[in-house]
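Q: For a teaching handout, I want to show students what a protein-ligand complex looks like in token form. Below are the inputs, and the small molecule is succinic acid. Please produce the holo structure.
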Amino acid sequence: MSLHKRLKTDVLIIGTGLAAISVALHLPNGMQALLVTKGTQRQTNSMRAQGGIASAQLEKNHEAHSADTIRAAKNRTNPSTVDFVTREGRTVISELEAFGVKFDRKKQGDYAVGREGAHGIPRIFHSGGDRTGRQMMEQLLKKMNHPVLEQTVITRLLTADGRVVGAAGYEGDERIEISARAVVLASGGIGGLLLTSTNDDMITGDGLALAADVGAELSDLGYIQHHPTILVHQGKSAGLITEALRGAGAYLMTRDGRRVMDHHPEGDLAARDEVAAAITAIRKQESVYLNTTPVAQLAERFPTFVQKCEKLNINPGLVEVTTGVHFLMGGIKTNLAGQTSVAGLYAVGETASIGLHGTNRLASNSLLECFVMGKALARQLQLPPRRALPTLRPIFGCEDGVSKQQLSEVLAVELQEDRLQAALEQLTNKSFRQTGRRAEQHRLQITTARLLLEGALHRLKGEQLTNEQMAPAATT
Ligand code: SIN
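A: Here is the structure, written as tokens, with succinic acid included.
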């Protein structure tokens, strides 16, 4: 097979979101890293994050944060993971500040922490109001001095004697092969495979397919979080509306003023899955709206939301909302050093599954996980000597990818076994005959879609993992 470009690095990081950047920023001096992304380095979900980052920095200890995480996750977490992330989370704000990130403060100088669904108290730190992800990422990218290869898709991992020793794919349309002493999957979630998603279109769960290809253990793929508030404009979805608005007093209602979450003891600040389920049920009959009129200083605290409404010529005081695909709770199983069950292969951030999120992630725990676990991985990484790459054999893909429409209809808030089964059969029958970047990308997407459908079927059959089974993956 003809090869056009060969590169070599110590640590190949697939992705450029917060998890990837946190790994890169925390690697020991002298360790080389190369980051690759299918699009541009700024095309990440981390850049889009509005809500903020949860931290118990202002609390006596991390216990209440830990308890809220477990409760929102319906008790299906690995308690030692939750303990680790929330405890480490107490210092993330000052660590990010040391990198130059500025968090919002009140006039008197105290942090302006906010509250979101299922948090017992306000503990969400913001930067630039609802522009937290962008502000944080822009600053961290300035500090990160490892090279980034853009427009580069990794379509397969390369192994030798059961160990991942590199990866291959395409830079633009040119074939590329990268030798690495460790490969880190930080490629985010799966929202780009589905319609009405808060994710960048490019985020299509490639890491899951790459990991499955080399036999890495995956877990809890049936748990997809649907965000309760996606703006609706002229019948179409027009992007995320941060949950922090409800934390600041906004509430969900029907056209005649009935409160959607009145039945729930936590009202509009119930856990995300419960709010999404309530909205889905009501939307079968009528529209649901978010009333933001109780929110003080709306434009100052929520500039992304207000500017979007202005652009669309919508009154920000009352907007129609629907639910949308937001986050994958499961993923590639790792331990707290980011190690998967395959030697040489690591995973971090949304693509990994460490037992933190159970069946429903607590709001604003995602940026927290990315930063904490990226650092933990980098600090514990031990590199073996470089191994020779195996001979590359052709890999076949498919002319068509996955139908977003069809996948979205079946991986909905309410799952139906017969529809999931039919979609899975259809994808299983696809034949892979084409070569080239597009075809190989389609192969990854189809593989990921199948994994998600299988995950959803397992979930429906009650075959989900127990807490005991959520123990960390074997170390390598
Ligand atoms: C939001 O701003 O509502 C999303 C934050 C998150 O995903 O935790």
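A: Two things your students might notice: Residues 465-476 have pLDDT under 50 and may be disordered. Residues 437-460 form the longest helix (24 residues).
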